[in-house]
Amino acid sequence: MTALNRTTVSSPTPPVRLVHLGLGAFHRAHQVWYTQQAEADPEHPEWGYASFAGRSAGISLELAAQDGLYTLVTRSGDGDSPELMTSLVESHPAENTARFIELLADANVAVVTLTVTEAGYHLTEDLELNTQAPDIVADLATLRVGSSDGPLLSAAGRLVAGLRARRAADAGGLAVMSCDNLSDNGTTTRASVLGFARALDPELAEWITAHVTFPSTSIDRITPATTEEFVAEVARATGREDAVPVVTEPFASWVIEGSFPAGRPAWERAGAQFVADIAPFERRKLWLLNGAHSLMAYLGQLRGHTTVAEAIADREIRHHVELLWDDAAEHLTAPGLDITAYRRALLDRFANPRIRHNLAQIGIDGGTKQRMRAVPILKTQRANNLLGHGAAYSIAAWIAFLLRGEDIADTRAAELLAARRADDPVRALLAALDHDLAADPHVLSLIRTFVTELTR
């Protein structure tokens, strides 16, 4: 068995021109893959990633021991296709603030990408920085005394510290691009970064406004969690010791709106789309793909399933997925979306027998995810004097799942636990998603009916 490093595989090392925050499997199956596929000359690559864990060491140490190399396995019904990924050059734990800041101050670094989840932006519902959040309070205190030697806890704190160093180095602008599953994620990122910068140094905020762009993206590629069994399979198939391989599906999508003042890889070579208006594509993905995932995560587990493939094979669950999609499709009418083909492709992807996409993993942070998935569909329906049973059923499945009384795997766990203990837990949990829906008697009555059915 061969050790995996750049010496044993004679891998070319591209210069670091990209930085990522939120190192995980999806980043390695998506942004790193697109970057490697976009190289005009693979023997002389021009774009390398330095990627940082979000809040801890994570897998960064294992990747560092492999010089950033890992195996990406594309898994379909026809078999596995392993590919050695070489565009990740550096991997660092979250606490390596010094290296993060050093890289952002480097004029050769052109783009920062993020996968930190919605909670990682520390914004209120009005897209204002939550300056009372403990991580924000701590980072502002650290940076106000001029220190950046110790760990910074928030994405905004780290980015602003890096951008402050970039301004001091006169390194010019760059793009900061979210790859999280959020509508208008560029606006979200901009609000978080500028909110932190204004609280720290208004002149720095002005510099960021003038020199930094925040492109919006819609991203898509199912990436199940890596298991010990999969690690062993990769070793047998490749003859290499890879501690952190990644498995993914054949399908990949990346839609981008925005500008890149310091340049970017030619991601379009790998199939990325650059569009003038990303909003319709975002809604299509969030409402259809991600919306179906959330519905299956809770309804599937309630019905005893563990994976997406098992859930979509259940006729009852597929029926409710189709109803959810019917609700959403009424409001996805922009040219170029081709909803019928998109739905058909999703069913094929969900049914892929060789992608083990665990429902429990998908169901984490439902208190945040459902706000972006089922809630907008249902609110759009109500704004048009309709009552979407599909979206309401998805919310009811989430509530019924929480009412089972198990530990809540959610960054909002304390708030949701209090709601579950309320005198009227259905109303309280619905209000935790959206106060307007909880105040709508028709919506509340329908969701009560569904929750009763699901908890019998």
TrEMBL record:
UniProt-listed InterPro entries: 6-PGluconate_DH-like_C_sf, 6PGD_dom2, Mannitol_DH, Mannitol_DH/Oxidoreductase, Mannitol_DH_C, Mannitol_DH_N, NAD(P)-bd_dom_sf
Keyword Cytoplasm: no
Pfam families named in the record: Mannitol_dh, Mannitol_dh_C
Catalytic activity: D-mannitol 1-phosphate + NAD(+) = beta-D-fructose 6-phosphate + NADH + H(+)
Domain Mannitol dehydrogenase C-terminal positions: 277-451
Keyword line: Oxidoreductase
One Gene Ontology molecular-function label: mannitol-1-phosphate 5-dehydrogenase activity
Domain Mannitol dehydrogenase N-terminal: 17-268
Keyword Protein transport recorded: no
Name of this chain's protein: Fructuronate reductase
